[in-house]
Design goal:
The protein has 351 residues and is an alpha/beta fold. The protein is 40% helix and 20% strand. A six-stranded parallel beta sheet has the order 11-10-12-13-9-14.
């Protein structure tokens, strides 16, 4: 190891003998080289360690900068991977929250099944995809988030489809902000169908920005998380960042831009075709939506649902499908999504 390379932690693993027929048990010792970071890793009153114990069914004991993990060999290794990942985040100057701990657990559990592109070799260590802007770095918190972030890197058109709370829109805006900061695109174009207003924005008070702001607020919120507020405002004023309803995309060619269509389930097939054909030279297009939350009038087809069917298998277009296990908001959100899914299946069965 080079002298200038900081050593994150050292770990020894010992498999103990157990009665015949029982699962292998592991005893892993981790030693961290920075007491302050180790304290942040453990959390207040060791709350992060307690959460790992609860999620993985292992026993974790701390003593200074040393941790001992005991439990089922697979679960203990998952805990080690999660702790290693969280410690690396702290080393980069970021803070970790409960949602980061939950995300590290998801990724650690999934690490055995992940494949490293392009060699398709199994990963020996967890390596979550990340998006880095000047203001913050975001790490994948689920296997599908990881796949989504990697798809954004390698594909010019990506569909992110799934329930609320999975990070579809947030990650898309973060990726667009990163491209803009690095000079890989010249502008960001953010769009949503203003279904609630029936696209009749002329009846609303104010200028165009004031008319559409209520429908595009989630996009603004994500932008402010990725970039300093003054830079966002200057970029919007200079039209480097453009936020507009879908109805105003017609007739345009969007080149050298990162283009995001959010809430795409509320587009009509004609609107979706119109939007997708705006893709210009050196542009990236990201379409996000949740087919289970369509707000279109009855008997109106969703442009997103139709596009997913028509474009399946088209080279260069990647679709990443999220589910309730990818929900990174409050744990109750995942439960709510599951409850509605169950009710929907019952209704379809009754029909």
């Amino acid at each position: 190891m080079p002298a200038n390379e900081e050593r994150r932690l050292s770990a020894t693993t010992e498999l103990k003998n157990v009665p015949s027929g029982a699962s292998d048990m592991a005893h892993i010792v981790l030693t961290f080289d920075n007491n302050k970071l180790a304290s942040s890793l453990y959390g207040q009153f060791d709350e992060n360690l307690a959460r790992l114990e609860q999620k993985l069914g292992v026993d974790i004991r701390s003593r200074g900068n040393q941790l001992t993990i005991k439990g089922n060999a697979a679960a203990a290794e998952q805990a080690r991977r999660a702790l290693d990942h969280l410690y690396s985040i702290l080393q980069k100057g970021a803070e970790i929250a409960q949602s980061d701990v939950d995300g590290a657990v998801r990724m650690a559990i999934a690490a055995d099944d992940q494949l490293t592109l392009p060699t398709l070799e199994r990963k020996g260590k967890m390596a979550a995809a990340q998006i880095a802007t000047r203001k913050r770095t975001i790490y994948a918190r689920s296997l599908n988030q990881d796949a989504y972030m990697r798809a954004l890197e390698r594909s010019e058109m990506v569909f992110g489809v799934g329930p609320a709370g999975t990070g579809k829109t947030y990650l898309a805006v973060a990726y667009a902000a990163m491209l803009l900061e690095r000079g890989l695109v010249e502008r960001i174009v953010l769009s949503r169908p203003a279904v609630e207003a029936g696209e009749r924005l002329g009846f609303l008070p104010g200028d165009m920005k004031e008319k559409v702001d209520p429908y595009l607020r989630p996009l603004y919120d994500a932008l402010y998380d990725m970039m300093p507020a003054d830079k966002v405002e200057r970029a919007i004023a200079a039209e480097v960042i453009e936020i507009a309803p879908l109805a105003f995309m017609r007739g345009r060619t969007l080149a050298h831009a990162a283009v995001i269509l959010d809430e795409a389930q509320n587009t009509t097939p004609m609107q979706m075709k119109m939007f997708l054909t705006r893709l210009g030279e050196n542009a990236r297009m990201i379409v996000t939506g949740d087919p289970s939350q369509i707000d279109l009038p009855p008997n109106t087809k969703s442009g997103l649902v139709e596009a997913l069917r028509i474009l399946e298998g088209v080279p260069g277009i990647v679709t990443v499908r999220f589910n309730e296990t990818d929900v990174v908001r409050h744990p109750l959100v995942a439960e709510i999504v599951q409850a509605y899914d169950r009710d929907g299946k019952k209704a379809r069965g009754a029909g």
